[in-house]
Amino acid sequence: MELTKSEMEIMDVLWAEEAPLSRADLLERSDEKSWKDSSVHILLNGLLQKGAIREAGFVKRSKTYGRTFAPTLTREEYFATTIFSHRHKPEIVGLFAALLKRKDITADQLAQIEALVAKKKK
To answer: Within 13 A of 38's CA, how many CA atoms are on the CB side?
Structure first.
């Protein structure tokens, strides 16, 4: 699944929230957007078709009800799937080696990675 720049902007807002958001909530929280307010429904429908978001319920806003939306995958899950969906897939060990070279990795993060690897081995 490949998302456009505008779709990624909407996903960033959804990923930042703990609860599903309505169209109006998305518009309120989208400070730096490259799309017009009137095209949010097109973007939401595209994200629904791609399976990036799901309808999570309804919320009443003034006199009407509106759908709420939630992501179907985390930011990390999205990027993990996009890395391996390209024609030129990286070799997984090389990818991990490159990620581990980053200077901003903390000891706690390394411990978490080690625990994930140990769990996968079992």
So the answer is: 0
Question: Which residues have CB under 8 Å from 88's CB, separation 6+?
Answer: none
Nearest in space to 33 (alpha carbons), one of 47, 43, 45, 46: 43
Closest CA to 44 of 85, 77, 4: 4
Summarize pLDDT for 58-90 with one digit per residue, the tens. 888 778 888 899 999 999 999 888 887 777 778
For the stretch 8-66, pLDDT in tens is 999 999 999 988 999 888 888 888 888 888 888 999 999 999 999 999 888 887 788 88
Are the CB atoms for 75 and 15 separated by under 8 Å? yes
Contact 46, 7 (CB under 8 A): yes
Q: Which domains does the chain have, with CATH numbers?
A: 5-71 (1.10.10.10), 75-121 (no CATH)
Assess contact for 71 and 11: CB atoms under 8 A. yes
Q: Could you tell me the pTM of the whole model?
A: 0.78
